[in-house]
Specification:
Layout lengths: L1 E5 L3 E6 L2 E4 L15 H7 L1 H14 L2 E3 L5 E2 L8 E3 L22 H4 L2 E3 L4 E2 L5 E3 L7 E3 L1 E7 L8 H4 L3 E8 L2 E2 L10 H5 L5 E9 L10 E6 L2 E7 L7 H9 L9 E3 L7 E2 L5 E6 L3 E9 L9
Parallel strand pairs: 6-17, 8-14, 9-20
Antiparallel strand pairs: 1-2, 1-5, 1-14, 2-3, 3-4, 6-7, 10-13, 10-18, 11-12, 11-17, 12-14, 15-16, 15-19, 19-20
Helix pairs in contact: 1-2
The protein binds manganese (II) ion.
The site of manganese (II) ion (MN) has 7 residues, from loops.
């Protein structure tokens, strides 16, 4: 099943180019803050899944192109990310990296702000007036299905609810001039496009055999396969759950392959992950200056 969230924090099932509105079957959906209904839906999937399937049978399909998609989980408890998780990517950004060539195996994971999420219907906003370099990173997102704490890799895949496409937008450091923490550089609002939907895990028999591609203005920039991950999905879940509790709806950005490059206002970024989905977002400059400039 493909689950999407659209304007007004409504929930839809996607089939082909149609969306079937199943909001009435989702407890807590709607504009109330905080928008945590997808976490509850995923946590209660054993009963919520059949209720949604039932609602889908009588729901009227509307054209997917007529709705504005929000992140398929607008408010996960955590957005976790793997650094340097594809061999060929390591070293390609040279001095503009804080990782000094170490892999996710040695570095562990980092966090992105939940507030940086944006859906397929949104835009990537770069800080107004910035001369810094901003990069795209094309990543498979793993959505957690149930609470996970100290889960060994041999059992980890049973904790996966589904998958989505994720762009980990990053402001690079300027060595010796500006070397902000990674969380700051990756947490600007809209720096984590997620979508266009969540595909449930039953539709992805092998998440380590998916082509992961990204284009800028139609020009191919990244083209790799998730089989080249260094720390694979069960090992990531083992690593993260050894430190903290993963919650239903949590998002793990599994790392980017080679081909990372700069983006600028006016660009259009397309991400496609095989069997998961694809989405295109425009890059724009923020409307106003922030009080602290970057
Ligand atoms: Mn990344």
């Amino acid at each position: 099943m493909k689950l999407a969230v659209f304007e007004g924090h409504r929930v839809g099932v996607i089939e082909g180019d149609h969306l079937f509105d199943v909001t009435d079957a989702v407890e807590g959906a709607g504009p109330a803050w905080p928008p945590v209904y997808m976490n509850r839906l995923i946590a209660n999937w054993e009963t919520a899944g059949p209720a949604i399937a039932e609602k889908r049978r009588t729901a009227r399909g509307i054209a997917l192109s007529s709705v504005k998609l929000l992140p398929p989980n607008p408010c996960p408890v955590h957005v976790i990310a793997a650094p340097a998780n594809y061999r060929k990517h390591i070293g390609e950004i040279g001095a503009r990296s804080v990782s000094k060539g170490r892999t996710a195996e040695q570095q562990g994971f980092f966090m992105k702000a939940t507030a940086s999420l944006v859906g397929a219907g949104g835009a990537i906003e770069l800080p107004k007036g910035s001369t810094r370099r901003f990069d795209h990173e094309s990543e498979l997102a793993v959505i957690i299905g149930r609470r996970a704490r100290n889960v060994p890799r041999s059992e980890a895949m049973s904790y996966v609810f589904g998958y989505s496409c994720l762009i980990d937008v990053t402001m690079r450091i300027e060595p010796g001039v500006a070397e902000e923490e990674r969380v700051t550089r990756k947490s600007f609002e809209t720096f984590t496009p997620l979508g266009p939907w969540i595909v449930t895990a039953d539709e992805i028999p092998d998440p380590h055999a998916l082509r992961n591609r990204l284009w800028v203005n139609g020009e191919p920039r990244q083209d790799a396969n998730t089989r080249d991950m260094i720390v694979n999905i069960p090992a990531l879940i083992e690593l993260i759950s050894s430190v903290m509790t993963l919650n239903p709806g949590d998002v793990i950005a599994s790392g980017t392959p080679e081909g990372v490059g700069p983006i600028a206002p006016g660009d259009r970024i397309r991400i496609s992950i095989e069997s998961v989905g694809e989405m295109t977002l425009p890059v724009v400059e923020a409307a106003g200056f922030s009080p602290r400039r970057f």
